[in-house]
């Protein structure tokens, strides 16, 4: 019997982000893609200002987004 590894890093925020804002993570990835070539904190600021996300949730989404681009 193997125990499932707990989710770590930015993805650990995904269930609470989806619950709080009512949108799937794929939606937020599209929002970030459409925001253009901005730096990490500029993308965080965009999510906070335009979509009223909290700092931790915005930062987790951007960190995941940037990591997927590498």
Can you characterise this structure?
Pfam families: DUF4287 (PF14117). This is DUF4287 domain-containing protein. α3 crosses α4. By secondary structure, the chain is an all-alpha fold. The protein has one domain. It is built from four helices and no strands.
> How many individual helices?
4
Radius of gyration: 13 Å
Mean pLDDT: 94
The H/E string reads: HHHH
The end-to-end distance, rounded to whole angstroms, is 35 Å
Q: How many strands, which pairing sense, and closed or not: the largest β-sheet?
A: none
Q: How many beta-strand elements?
A: 0
Strand content: under 5%
Shape: globular
Low-confidence runs (pLDDT<50, min 5 residues)? none
Category by helix and strand content? mainly alpha
Number of domains: 1
Protein name: DUF4287 domain-containing protein
Which features would summarize this protein structure in a list?
DUF4287 domain-containing protein, 4 helices, mainly alpha, DUF4287, 70 residues
